[in-house]
Design brief:
single chain; 277 residues; alpha/beta; Arc Repressor Mutant, subunit A; Rossmann fold; 2 domains; seven-stranded parallel beta sheet; 9 helices; 34% helix
């Protein structure tokens, strides 16, 4: 297995479980613990992980935890997989609007910092997370909603009117072939409407519980969606309807193999010679 594939597997495990152990990963991937330590050190340097004694955890912001919002605990594993899959869709220097929401926070967690990346952040958690990495971040400000610390209202929308983006990455309370993207809160809906008008592409992140659901405030019609990334339990009929409407639908799923009992790492499985004893 190439190093890049091994590190992708490690990130998948973090996306699913948030905490990983070096010994377990070494056995699972049939490499030495030293190889896993080097991989974790590289991923930590890139801002994806925080190394711990014997393992690693998902990156924590310098000033706040991403999971302070109780909604972050709902479909948590699915949201992490969606966020990681969405981050893989974006390469090269870009200007990206990242809307408020627990799934877009996970996207920010896995977004690779590259030269030329600019992020317009619609929430304080996203701004805090990416502001601790080598990324140019613009925080919109405005009224801050208590539950998820999102920036909404006339001031946030007016600030957003000054910018354009290559990609808008937004969450949703509902996504359906009939009404497109919908939200419960109209302030949030208006912020996302503005971002969509000012962006070339629209990436919607919504776990299975949001697919086929219609909330009160319409954000954008289905024709505005470039790509939808969702989880495995999304209703098949609704996914078919969205694809028929021209939406590229990606179902985020884990490809990480589970370790088999009794399986041990081969001493030279990572391609490094071992000294005879």
């Amino acid at each position: 297995m190439f190093a890049v594939d091994r590190r992708r597997r490690i990130l998948e495990r973090v996306a699913e479980e948030q905490t990983i152990r070096i010994g377990e990963l070494a056995r699972e991937l049939s490499v030495s613990e030293m190889t896993i330590r080097r991989d974790i050190a590289r991923l930590e340097g890139d801002g994806f992980l925080r190394a711990t004694y014997g393992g690693a955890t998902a990156h924590i912001t310098k000033s706040m935890e991403l999971a302070f919002n109780p909604r972050a605990l709902q479909h948590a594993a699915e949201k992490r997989l969606i966020g990681m899959r969405a981050a893989a869709e974006l390469t090269g220097p870009l200007t990206v609007f990242v809307g408020p929401g627990t799934t877009t926070e996970q996207f920010s967690l896995f977004l690779t910092p590259v030269p030329g990346l600019n992020v317009i952040a619609g929430s304080l958690p996203v701004a805090s997370l990416l502001g601790s990495r080598p990324v140019d971040v613009i925080a919109l400000g405005g009224k801050v909603r208590e539950e998820e610390l999102s920036c909404v209202g006339p001031l946030a929308t007016a600030a957003l009117e000054r910018y354009r983006a290559d990609v808008a990455v937004v969450g949703a309370a509902g996504v359906s072939a009939r009404f497109g993207i919908t939200e419960i809160d109209d302030d949030l809906a208006e912020l996302n409407r503005t971002a969509i008008r000012h962006s070339l592409r629209l990436l919607v992140l919504a776990d299975e519980s949001k697919i086929g659901v219609d909330a009160t405030a319409i954000v954008a019609p289905v024709s505005a969606i470039t790509t939808l990334i969702t989880s495995q339990g999304a209703p098949a009929a609704e996914i078919a309807g969205l694809r028929k409407a021209g939406v590229t639908v990606i179902v985020a799923a884990s490809t990480t193999p589970r370790p088999r009992p009794g399986r041990r790492a081969s001493p030279a499985a990572d391609g490094q010679p071992r000294k005879p004893r």
